[in-house]
Amino acid sequence: MKVTHIPFQKTGFFSKTMADYLEKGDKIKPFYNNFPDINGFKNQIEEKRTSFRLQSRLVLVDALKKQYQPFKTPDKTAHNIELLKQQNTFTITTGHQLNLFTGPLYFLYKIISTINLSEELEKKFPEENFVPIYWMATEDHDFDEINYFNFDGKKVSWNRKDGGPVGRFSTAGLEEVFEVFSNHLGSSKNANYLKSLFSEGYLKHGNLADATRFIANELFKEYGLVIVDGDNKNLKQLFTPFVKDELENETSFKEVSKTILALEKKYPIQVNPREINLFYLGDDFRERIIFEDNKYKVNNTDITFSKAEILKEVDENPMAFSPNVIMRPLFQEVILPNLCYIGGGGEMAYWLELKNYFEKVKIPFPILLLRNSVQVISEKQVRKLSKLNISIEEVFLNQFDLLSKKVIANSELEINFDDKKNFLQAQFTDLKEVAKKTDVSFINAVNAQERKQIKGLEKLEKRLLKAEKKRQQGLVDRITVLQNELLPNESLEERQRNFSEYYLEYGNSFIQNLKEALKPLQLEFTVLEL
After folding, report:
1. Which of 250, 296, 371, 447 has its CA 20 to 30 A from that of 83?
2. Strand, coil or helix: what is 496?
3. pLDDT (tens digit, 9 = 90+) per residue, 222-264?
4. Which helix (H) or strand (E) segment is 234 a member of?
5. Which of 396, 501, 499 is nearest to 110 (CA)?
């Protein structure tokens, strides 16, 4: 295994928002609290230590023990759950949807980033304990986003009726998906493990939340990962003061809207708040709560409440209230002694909208850490890159630009016309000096002619490059095939592939290699040569 780190910005797949955040740009500083470095964690520990109550810890531990009761809890996980009772124990959290068979590869990268950061902080702060948390998004209702995964360029899908929180979905019907997936795997030792993992997870557990917990538990059982399901009565009771505040005062809407006014002057906005950022939840529906005509209405239903009735409902039936993307981060931070949230660029972007809201409701705003991203390259692909004289950083170039660069470098012709354009512009500069001594119409004619001549050269340059690409078609094809292997659909492979492709080839050593390679606080993109 060889590991190379390159700046996230050099891949071309990360936004200006993330680039500025990683560079601690002045424009983005007002939108976060502590930065993800050791000094930032030192400050965050003190902030969270003084604000997180012992009673909340006891409720959390009790809820987790009940959630793990039907499962074989790994020893290290059980130990970490017990540690959460102690005031010197803190969490590092990532969250993810309940994608079928973990979904895209970056599910692994998120969780390993969380585990590795917890271990690194243990070394830096030996007086404290750090527990890695995977927050399952059990209350999401976007089934279309999670009902498939890609394997070997094919989509493996689960087709069933949509509706309600996905964590409560029955796993009935996944037998057919298992048959389809099994047929792709073969009969090797690693293939049999993947078949067993899928069947044990989905065919022996009654709902999607339990199946996902089983699979994540199996993959990371050595590392003390604690899995949290927020769709829990006791955990939601801790959150009821904030639910009531939202219903009565629309606090999140007001505070996030103020932040957006400042943020949108510099960066794109990831999500916009609604007046009430809560859903009402049933087993087969999750619908927005709307305040209209002096009543609280549940969208697309006949359910309505007066103010007194809905506040009573919060107390009596806290499970019915589900935070949306704006309030879910607050729910997490209320019930966990959390220091840091680890997520992708899109997640970081919406968290950056929330700092003022957290301050208003007096909950510490966590450190935000961009998760590790990884490009896996096989030995065979490394050899091909070397033969084609393509560097690791060049792999991430736009395909047109990469092909142009390599065709030009491999050509005996002078395809770059920059010198010719510079020469032409120098001639026109002299001509403009002459033109200044005549009238305006002549100056305009010179400017128009300059544009025409430069445009003509650019057209000729493009035509010559196109012809040279055709002449070097063999080189173009080899580069195109290789880059498409590495970046399927001209996207990072971590967003396209499922972990099972690499597990089939490398077995558990794939996870062990990732565990060894990922350095969360290095804040760089990881290239893993296997």
Report:
1. 371
2. coil
3. 999 999 999 999 999 999 999 999 999 999 999 999 999 999 9
4. helix 233-249
5. 499
